[in-house]
Amino acid sequence: MDFVFGPDAAGNTGVVVFVDRLSKMAHLAVVGDLVLLNAKSLTTQAVSAFFKTKLPSRFIGPFKVVAKKGLVYTLNLLKKMRTHPVFYVGLLKPYLDPARSSRWCSDAAWDWTAECQQVFDAVKQGLTKAPNLAVADQDRPFHVVCDASDFAIGCALMQHDHEGRDRVVYYQSRQLKTAERNYPVHDKELLAMKYAFAKFRVYLLGSRPFVVYTGHAALRTAIKSPHISQRTVRWLLFFAEYNFQVEYKPGRLNAVADALSRRPDYAVHKTDANAIGVERTSTPSDKSR
Asked: SS3 string of the chain?
């Protein structure tokens, strides 16, 4: 890629080569000629894709987060997952209208029908495509939301659209490792932030400042604290590469990251709690911080 779009071509095309991907096609005709002349060498690279009307979702990774199969549907779980779509200011309202069903009432009979499954699948699909999921706009500032639970961490890279509404660019989450489950709450939240920076590095690294929203207010003063662990010192050295500011966002307002860090398939179950040394079993409905 660097050979094809070298110094001679870059000045004419406006193309910048970054990790073997084309960042812009400002002069499409010139770029097209270069691609056609070098089609054989470029198309052999697994990461190359040209002249596509849309990109496969695996490039931004939402399906393994929100389209996970095999969930056991319960009333508490559905209420928890429901907070994520509600965050999107009515964009998924046709699927979330409380008047559609009385199932949200605690005294209602629980019956997961084919209609319920259809609506649930439609909501998941809505979260993985426009307008909820957006392509990164390098001319707009990014912001990050992150959260940690007893058993997982979750984060999302976001931008405001032209109307000032939040749009997700990238979802990420993972289960905590055995040792990480024993971290204090402060370190778990800091780990979620570190994980987000590592995953979104290509978007965040640079001179432009960005904001990180976390549900743990103490992280705002973590860098200034005179009493920090050796692990925190190492992480602060990692954070020093980035130009960011930490802001507190309560869990009820941090719905996206909160939902990602509480995926039910990440929860620690009683059958394996003893094996990993966890004294208290976490469940998807656990609200502890």
From this structure: CCCCCCHHHHHHHCCCEECCEECCCCCHHHHHHHHHHCHHHHHCCCCCCCCCCCCCHHHCCCHHHHCCCCCCCCHHHHHHHHHHHHCCCCCCHHHHCHHHCCCCCCCCCCCCCHHHHHHHHHHHHHCCCCCCECCCCCCCCEEEEEEECCCEEEEEEEEECCCCCEEEEEEEEEECCCCHHHCCHHHHHHHHHHHHHHHCHHHHCCCCCEEEEECCHHHHHCCCCCCCCHHHHHHHHHHCCCCEEEEECCCCCCHHHHHHCCCHHHCCCHHHHHHHCCCCCCCCCCCCC
